[in-house]
Design goal:
By secondary structure, this protein is α+β, with helices and mostly antiparallel strands. 17% of the residues lie in helices and 47% in strands. The chain has a single domain (3-293), classed as Beta Barrel (Acetoacetate decarboxylase-like), CATH 2.40.400.10.
C-alpha cells in the first residue's frame, strides 16, 4: 500500500494514497461511498448531513462516519471503590450489584471509515447519568432497555497515526499507537500488543456465536462518554447502527488472557473480574460526534 503525507491539527501524518481521507478529507460523497462493495446500506448517514464546525483543532467536518465496523465487547464486574478512584469526581460509577460496578473492554475494527481503516481498543468505566436519582440497579436496567449508556474512557489505543492525532488533539482522549487485531471468522479473536511490534498485552478468544441480522436503523444504541476537555466537562456521543450481532450473558467459554502491558495493568488495577456479558457485533455502522460542553458536572 502506498501512503501520502497530510496535515492534521498541526501535525503531519501518513494516510493511504487514494483512500477515503485522501479523497474526501472527512467530507465524503455518499453516492460514491454507496458504490463501495464493502459498505452496506448507507441511508442512515444521509439522515445526518455533515457540517463544517469549529473545534479545538480548527474547522472540521462532523460527525465522523464509520461505514462498516466489527465490535467485540466484554462487560466485567469491578469493585466500586477502585472504580471511584480511577475516575475524576463528580463522575459516579454505575453500581451493578452491591459493592460492584462495571468495566467495558471493547475491541473495534473499522474496515471502512472517513479516516481509513484502523483498529481500536477501549477500556471504560460505566457511569451514572448526570443528575440521575433513584436506585442505580434500576438505572442500569433502564439503560439496557434504551440501549443508552454513559461512561468515562480510561484508555483508547489505536493502530494508525491519524486516528491517534484526531483523538488526542481533537478530543483529548487517552490514545496511543500500538498493534491490534480483531477477527470474527471461524471463531472470535482479538489481541492488543504492549507497543508497536511488542509482545501481547491482552488476547481474547471465544467460539463463533450465532448472529441475528436486523433491519438497518432498527437497533440503534447510544454511548456517551464524559470527560474533561481543556479543563471543562464535555460529553461525546457515539451512535451505533447494529446490523448483525450476538449477545450472551455469563459466557463460560470466553478466554481473556492478560499478559503484560498497559491494558493488563489497568484491568488488574481496576479489579475487573467476572464477565457478565459478551457482545459480538459482526456488522455495524457508527457516527462519532464532536465533544459538547456540559454543565451537568459543574455542581
Amino acid at each position: 500500500m502506498e501512503f501520502i503525507d497530510v496535515e492534521f491539527a498541526g501535525e503531519t501524518v501518513q494516510v493511504p494514497k487514494g483512500g477515503y481521507y485522501d479523497r474526501y478529507r472527512s467530507n465524503p460523497n455518499l453516492d460514491e461511498v454507496a458504490q463501495d462493495p464493502a459498505v452496506a446500506n448507507i441511508d442512515w448517514f444521509r439522515r445526518v448531513p455533515k457540517q463544517l464546525v469549529q473545534s479545538r483543532v480548527g474547522p472540521i467536518y462532523a460527525p465522523n462516519f464509520y461505514y462498516s465496523a466489527r465490535i467485540i465487547q466484554v462487560l466485567m464486574l469491578a469493585p466500586l471503590d477502585k472504580l471511584r478512584a480511577a475516575v475524576p469526581q463528580p463522575i459516579e460509577p454505575l453500581r451493578a450489584v452491591p459493592t460492584q460496578g462495571l468495566v467495558a473492554l471493547t475491541f473495534f475494527s473499522y474496515t471502512v471509515c472517513d479516516n481509513d481503516p484502523y483498529d481500536e481498543v477501549s477500556v471504560a468505566v460505566v457511569a451514572r447519568r448526570p443528575g440521575a436519582t433513584g436506585l442505580p440497579e434500576l438505572e442500569l436496567l433502564d439503560s439496557m432497555r434504551r440501549q443508552s449508556f454513559h461512561a468515562h474512557v480510561l484508555a483508547l489505543p489505536v493502530t494508525t497515526e491519524i486516528a491517534r492525532v484526531r483523538g488526542v488533539n481533537g478530543y483529548q482522549l487517552p490514545k496511543w499507537r500500538t498493534d491490534i487485531s480483531v477477527n470474527i471468522d471461524q471463531d472470535v479473536r482479538a489481541e492488543i500488543s504492549n507497543g508497536p511490534g511488542g509482545a501481547p498485552d491482552l488476547t481474547f478468544q471465544a467460539p463463533l456465536p450465532k448472529f441475528e441480522k436486523v433491519k438497518p436503523q432498527s437497533r440503534i444504541s447510544t454511548s456517551t462518554t464524559v470527560g474533561l476537555v481543556d479543563g471543562k466537562w464535555h460529553t461525546t456521543t457515539v451512535q451505533t447502527n447494529t446490523l448483525s450481532y450476538a449477545q450472551r450473558s455469563f459466557p463460560r467459554d470466553v478466554k481473556l488472557t492478560r499478559h503484560d502491558g498497559p491494558l493488563t495493568q489497568l484491568l488488574d488495577g481496576l479489579g475487573a473480574s467476572t464477565i457478565l456479558r459478551l457482545d459480538v457485533i459482526e456488522d455495524a455502522q457508527l457516527m462519532l460526534h464532536l465533544p459538547r460542553p456540559t454543565t451537568a458536572y459543574d455542581k
